[in-house]
Design brief:
The chain is α/β, with parallel strands linked by helices and 257 residues long. It contains ten helices and eight strands. The strands form two sheets. Strands 1, 2, 3, 4, 7 and 8 form a six-stranded parallel sheet that branches. Strands 5-6 form a two-stranded antiparallel sheet.
Length: 257
Amino acid sequence: MNNTLILKVKRVATTLLRLLYVPKCAACGTRLSLREAEQGVLCPLCFLRYENEKDATCPVCAARLSSCTCLAPGMPKTAARKMVKLVRYRPREDETSARMIYTLKHKNLVDLQRFFAGELAAPLANILPCEREEYLVTYPPRSRSSYRRDGFDHAAALGRELAAKLGVAFLPTLSRGNTGVQKKLSRTARLQAAAESYALRSGVDLHGKHVILVDDIATTGATLAAACRLLRRAGAKEVIFAVLAITPAAFSGAGRG
């Protein structure tokens, strides 16, 4: 079977699946038409809202948030020097991006994982060299309780898709104990808990590697900083943070989570 025929079979199979299992908007839950589903994961209205939310500006450099690489000033000195992010996370304001991230965390939707991976891949492609053999993508694992509840690790799924988009390796490097929910902790307590939560997997050697650490939300940056410290300890030459959203606390150094 040649490649052209394989592609045609895949397209037909995808069309049949979409007809049998009607996809819904990842933000508002309305049913998508076949054409809308082929174009993305959002209905037209939610897509416009999401694009508007991406127009938020960075509080450090005043550039469009999704096009800058500023690191949150409140993050520990052990953190990386570059951070790619898409939007501000403000769930209480019922923003489209917040609802999308909630869906990503609790529903194992490949189309949404690929959508967000593509969104992160675009700004990352601007700062990565053409030759990417020394680059890899990894992630901080979910807590065991969250994994048992939802049945999957959304950060791992997002990391795999991002690595595929960038054409680099994907490597699980970290393990995590069952330390409870960090979002209920104060900033100081979260920094301490994050430092105690993660460990390097056995045999991980990152000498000479440039590591892209992907996660959904940066609140205080505690998780990213703790993971970065371990990755550097394993020999990583550089660590780049790639997150879908940041909270105001990430840049103010205040707040919870």
